[in-house]
């Protein structure tokens, strides 16, 4: 069973979100998804409702709280921030569930807002940042900020026919003029500098590890981190020109 709590949107937009989930899942009736509209309640009442349903929903597995700041009266109250973080830890442990929370970022520095943001980041398993592209506002970029386990690769999505879809080649579509350059036009000196940095950490790499090393080396030596599409193109170029050899 999945619980989805919306604390701030109007009924129309909550229902619109629910319909979008159903379309993505390919179902007409969300029998295992229970959606709750909590806009009209106080922070304390919202917290009580969520806690009651978490403990009284059989076979619960997944919970979404959008947004977590509406369960407290102040995002900068340390005691409330600690209380909410403790509640989340308690619920996930006692009910053996996964909880996703949504919290807005500061517009000035893109950090999670207030003491509650700091507390939740410290306790979270995975923190993802979702940002609008500066060059194409139709594209939202999902960036791993902090992960206790292996972090996912950065990806992006866009809304097509009212449905979220993976934004293909988003790195090329969202790059700025400053970032634009063609790896096929790299000078031999630049390639040598890049590979010297990469292979200072070993004599050979798996394909996945080589991509990561090139990404790190490009940021360090070229002051510009290469995206995945350009890295794949660069590796192909290097193999074609015998700068790299691939075995197995």
3D structure, described in words:
By secondary structure, the chain is α/β, with parallel strands linked by helices. Helix content is 41%, strand content 19%. It contains eight helices and eight strands; from the N terminus they run E-H-E-H-E-H-E-H-E-E-E-E-H-H-H-H. The chain has helices spanning 11-25, 43-56, 78-95, 114-123, 170-174, 188-198, 207-221, 228-240, and strands at residues 2-6, 33-37, 62-66, 98-102, 126-132, 139-147, 155-160, 163-166. The strands form two sheets. It has a four-stranded parallel sheet with strand order 2-1-3-4, sandwiched between helices. Strand 3 (62-66), helix 3 (78-95) and strand 4 (98-102) form a beta-alpha-beta unit. Helix 3 packs parallel to helix 4 (114-123). The longest helix is centred in the middle third of the chain and has 18 residues, at 78-95. The N and C termini lie far apart (45 Å). The model has no long low-confidence stretch (mean pLDDT 88).
What's the arrangement of secondary structure elements?
Layout (H helix, E strand, L loop, with lengths): L1 E5 L4 H15 L7 E5 L5 H14 L5 E5 L11 H18 L2 E5 L11 H10 L2 E7 L6 E9 L7 E6 L2 E4 L3 H5 L13 H11 L8 H15 L6 H13 L8
Parallel strand pairs: 1-2, 1-3, 3-4
Antiparallel strand pairs: 5-6, 6-7, 7-8
Helix pairs in contact: 3-4, 6-7
- How many helices in DSSP terms? 8
Number of strands: 8
What is the H/E order? EHEHEHEHEEEEHHHH
Strand order, biggest sheet?
A: 2-1-3-4
The radius of gyration computed from the alpha-carbon positions, rounded to a whole number of angstroms, is 23 Å
Shape: elongated
Beta content: 15-25%
Provide the residue-averaged pLDDT. Answer: 88
Give the N-terminus to C-terminus distance in angstroms: 45 Å
Give the % helix.
40-55%
Any low-confidence stretches, pLDDT <50, length ≥5? none
């Amino acid at each position: 069973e999945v619980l989805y709590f919306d604390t701030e949107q109007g009924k129309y937009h909550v229902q619109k979100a629910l319909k979008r989930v159903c379309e993505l899942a390919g179902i007409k009736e969300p029998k295992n998804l229970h959606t709750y509209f909590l806009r009209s309640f106080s922070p304390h009442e919202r917290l009580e409702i969520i806690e009651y349903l978490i403990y009284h929903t059989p076979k619960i597995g997944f919970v979404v709280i959008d947004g977590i700041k509406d369960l407290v009266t102040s995002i900068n109250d340390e005691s409330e921030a600690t209380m909410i973080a403790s509640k989340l830890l308690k619920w996930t442990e006692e009910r053996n569930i996964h909880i996703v929370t949504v919290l807005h970022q500061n517009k000035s520095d893109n950090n999670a807002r207030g003491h509650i943001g700091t507390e939740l980041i410290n306790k979270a398993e995975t923190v993802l940042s979702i940002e609008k592209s500066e060059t194409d506002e139709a594209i939202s970029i999902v960036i791993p900020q902090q992960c206790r386990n292996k972090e996912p690769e950065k990806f992006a999505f866009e809304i097509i026919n009212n449905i979220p879809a993976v934004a293909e080649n988003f790195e090329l579509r969202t790059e700025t003029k400053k970032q634009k350059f063609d790896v096929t036009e790299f000078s031999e000196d630049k390639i040598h500098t890049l590979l010297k940095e990469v292979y200072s950490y070993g004599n050979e790499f798996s394909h996945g590890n080589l991509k990561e090393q090139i990404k790190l080396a490009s940021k360090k030596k070229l002051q510009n981190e290469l995206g995945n599409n350009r890295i794949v193109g660069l590796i192909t170029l290097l193999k074609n020109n015998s700068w790299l050899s691939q075995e197995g």
